[in-house]
Amino acid sequence: MKDTVSYKYWHHPLNRDLLTLRQVYDSMSRAGAGQNEIPLMIQLVENPRYKFPGFTLFHGAVDLEQHDYIHIILGRGMLELDEAFTIGFTMGSTKKVTDTEEQLFALIAQYLYPTVYQFGEREIEVFRDAVRLGYVSDCQPLDEIDFRQYLDMPLRVVRERIGVEANLLRAYYEIEKNRYPDAPASRRLLDA
After folding, report:
1. Which of 106, 135, 147, 157 could form an S-S bond across to 92 if both were Cys, CB 3.0 to 4.6 Å?
2. What string of DSSP letters covers the chain?
3. Looking at the DSSP assignment, which residues form a beta bridge with residue 154?
4. Which pLDDT band holds residue 156 (cuts at 50, 70, 90)?
5. Distance, CA of 27 to CA of 9 (rounded, Å)
6. Nearest to 46 by CA among 70, 74, 75
7. Rounded distance, CA 67 to CA 60, Å?
């Protein structure tokens, strides 16, 4: 059963890195949606379960559990800008995303997703930034990591083991915070 904590308010900042992945995941799962609550259109685009054999529409596709772990590792909440960043960084971390793939995903997210899930211009900009940031990061491809092996490790250690550079994220989050000062997701990124 879901907690009264709304997904809109759930956020575990990047700088709070002493809790274990399991502790943060448990708090997130009380506020987030279950797999059966995610619209089919989004699952078709983002979930690897819907891949065609021998064909990858979008690199970085992950199931909801994996997606949630990535939110936590990146220090992102569950608002629209957080979703855009998490998806973009995951795709970029594969080092396989083409310009065409990036443009196609942006079009689908902006025009074909159900209305409440659609990306606006801000989300598209953050998504594109995140693809590039994931690409230049030295982290492992986030779609290939079995995060369950890290559940009882502090987030700081998990990030170190998989190569996620917290300083790189902080630098971008500062830019995002200045670029979108009125966006709740951007304002809270560097909270202690």
Report:
1. 135
2. ---S--TTT----TT---SBHHHHHHHHHHHS--GGGS-HHHHHHH-GGGPBTTB-SSTT---HHHHHHHHHHHT--SSHHHHHHHHHHHHHHTT---HHHHHHHHHIIIIIS-GGG---HHHHHHHHHHHHHHHHS-SPPGGG--GGGGTTSBHHHHHHHHT--HHHHHHHHHHHHHH-TT-HHHHTTT--
3. 20
4. very high
5. 12
6. 70
7. 10
